[in-house]
Structure formats: structure tokens, C-alpha cells
Write a structure and sequence with these properties.
This protein is 49% helix and 19% strand. The protein is an alpha+beta fold. The chain starts with 6 loop residues before the first strand and ends with a strand.
Length: 180
Amino acid sequence: MNPQDEVVFGHTVEGLLVALEGHLEGPLRTKLKAAGLDLDRKLAPAYPKAQWYQMLALGSETLFPELPAPQAHWHLGERFISAYFSTNMGRALQGVLKLVGPSRTLERTTRNMASGSNYVQVDVERLSPTDYRLKVNDAGIHPEFLGALCHFGTMTTGVKGLTTVVESHASPAATYRMRW
């Protein structure tokens, strides 16, 4: 796939905007517009991956300026999942996750990620019934954001004792370990 063709879909950006509610005026609004997201216009069907990564950086810096970037991206991912599940697409996905449980949720990660972008691919390895390794082709500069998406998305299933760690990161790829 040509990098210019790698996009994040508009409803994913909508989830980020919901996560940023209360902060979308003033400097952040101006910075988002400079990054290609004009909040005075209707959301586009898709945004280039590079713009998405700029939006994430601006969001994490705005919401969590006191935290190091990896932690800020993790917290932004947590807020994003909560916000995304309030969108139409997110509510539908959340309902499915609750029904299928943690194992099947993780095994469906590639399909779930495909609903948000056209470039993220995930290789899911089941090490035991409660131990998974996820290899992601493109987790961006800060893999903690995508790790938080997987973690808090899986938490929606009601799983107890879930831990998620970034095992390795060779930008843009990352490997995560998820256990409960």
C-alpha cells in the first residue's frame, strides 16, 4: 500500500474529538486546523495517517502535558476508547465485544482495527487461553496509544485482571503481551 493511501476513517477521528471535548477551543482548535482538521467543517470520510498521528500528538499534549509522551498516549487511548464507544460505530462494536468475550475479542483484533483504518494489521498469537501476543505492523511513534485501545477495548468484555505491556517497538511495528 502506498503511504499516501493509508488512512484513518472519519468516525475514528470523531471518537478522538469526543475524547477531546472541553478542550477543542483556543490553541488546540488552531493546531488541529494546521494539522488538517478544520472543526468548522464536516468531518471527511478519511484522513491521512500522518495527520492522524499529528492529531494524537496534539491531543495527548493538550490533555496530559505533565506526563511523558508514552504515558500521555496511553491515557489518551483510554479516553479515546471511552469516547469511541459513545459514537454510533463504537456502540455497535462495544455490543459485539461484550457478547464474544476477551479471547474472541483479541482473536478479532485485526477485524476490529480494520474498522478504524485501512493500514493496521495485527497478527494474534494465542499462547494459552488467557495469554496473547499481538504483533502490529503499524502502531505509530507511540505504541502505548494502540496498546491502550487493545487493553481498554478488551476490558469492555468484563475480563478481570488484564495486563497489557509493550513487549517491543521497532517503529512503526510493535508487539504487545496481554494476559489475565
